[in-house]
Design goal:
Vanadium-containing Chloroperoxidase, domain 1, two-stranded antiparallel sheet, mainly alpha, disordered C terminus, 2 strands, disordered N terminus
Length: about 280
C-alpha cells in the first residue's frame, strides 16, 4: 500500500498546484493543461507503441554478461553500477528538491529557491501522471515474463496485492523523474541567458537517461517504458517551468517563493509563509 499512499499524496500536491496556478491567467496559456498536451500524448503513444515491437530483443540483449553471486546479488560490474544509479528515483529527487528549497530560503537565494521549487513540482507531476497510467494498465515487468512477452498486461494489478510491483512497468518513474529535473535545470539555465546552456544541456539529459537505462539492465523495465518515462518527464518539466514563469503571480508560487526561514526565540528555526491570494 506504500505506493498507493504516495499516489494520494502526489494527487493532493498537484491538486493544490493546479488550483493555485490556474488562478492567474495574465499571460501565456490560460490553463495548465491544453489541447497541445493531447497531441503530445498521442504522438508519444504512437512512438512508444512502435518501439515496443523491439522490447523483447532489447531486453534479452541487455542481459548479456549479467552474472549473480550465490546469494542472488549482482556480480558483474555493469549490474552493480546500474544498481547504484537506480537509487536516483522520485523519492530521492523529491527529497533533494525539498532540501535545496529549504537551503534557498535559509540563505535568501531567490534563484536556488525558484529552481528547487519548480524541480520538485515537476517530479511530483511526472510521478503522479506515471502512476495514474501504470497502476490501471498493469504492464508486466521484463523479468516476470523472462524477457519474452512485452504485451502481457494485468489491468489494475499495479495498484494492489503482494506482487503489484511486478505489474507497474509502463512508464518508468525513475526516468520520468530524472528527465523532469534535467528539463527544469536546462530551461532555468536558458532563462538566465547562460552561454553554457548548449554545453550543459546535453550532459543533463544524458544524465537524466541513466536511471532508466540502468533499470533496463536490471530487467525492471522494457525500452518503451523508459522512452515513455522520458517523454513524461520532459513534458512535466516543460509545463511547470513555462507556466510558472508565464504566470509568476500564481498562488502556489507566491506562497512558497515568499516563504522564509529564520531563527526563532528558542534557538531553533522557524518557517514563515506569505499565503497571499
Amino acid at each position: 500500500m506504500r505506493h498507493f499512499a504516495s499516489l494520494l499524496l502526489a494527487l493532493a500536491l498537484i491538486g493544490q498546484t493546479a488550483a493555485g496556478q490556474s488562478a492567474d491567467t495574465s499571460s501565456g496559456s490560460k490553463t495548465f493543461f491544453n489541447k497541445r498536451d493531447l497531441v503530445i500524448g498521442g504522438a508519444a503513444l504512437v512512438g512508444t507503441g512502435a518501439l515496443s515491437a523491439f522490447d523483447g530483443k532489447i531486453a534479452r540483449r541487455s542481459q548479456r554478461g549479467r552474472t549473480f553471486e550465490l546469494d542472488g546479488s549482482d556480480k558483474d560490474g555493469l549490474s552493480r553500477w546500474s544498481r547504484r544509479v537506480s537509487k536516483v528515483n522520485e523519492t530521492t529527487l523529491t527529497a533533494a528538491g525539498i532540501v535545496a528549497y529549504g537551503a534557498g530560503r535559509l540563505f535568501n537565494s531567490k534563484t536556488v529557491t525558484d529552481i528547487a521549487l519548480h524541480s520538485t513540482e515537476s517530479v511530483v507531476l511526472a510521478s503522479l501522471a506515471s502512476q495514474i497510467i501504470r497502476g490501471p494498465l498493469g504492464r508486466t515487468r521484463p523479468y516476470v515474463s523472462h524477457d519474452s512477452d512485452q504485451y502481457k498486461f494485468k489491468p489494475f494489478r499495479g495498484f494492489f496485492g503482494d506482487s503489484s510491483f511486478d505489474y507497474r512497468a509502463f512508464p518508468s518513474i525513475h526516468t520520468s523523474s530524472s528527465m523532469a529535473i534535467a528539463t527544469v535545470l536546462t530551461m532555468e539555465l536558458h532563462r538566465r541567458n547562460s552561454d553554457a546552456t548548449p554545453f550543459v544541456a546535453p550532459i543533463l539529459f544524458a544524465a537524466g537517461m541513466l536511471p532508466g537505462l540502468a533499470r533496463i539492465r536490471l530487467d525492471q523495465h522494457w525500452a518503451s517504458d523508459v522512452a515513455s518515462g522520458a517523454i513524461m518527464g520532459v513534458w512535466a518539466g516543460y509545463k511547470v517551468v513555462s507556466y510558472s514563469h508565464a504566470h509568476p503571480n500564481n498562488r502556489f508560487d507566491r506562497m512558497l517563493l515568499g516563504a522564509s526561514i529564520m531563527p526563532d526565540l528558542h534557538g531553533g528555526l522557524a518557517i514563515g509563509f506569505n499565503p497571499t491570494f
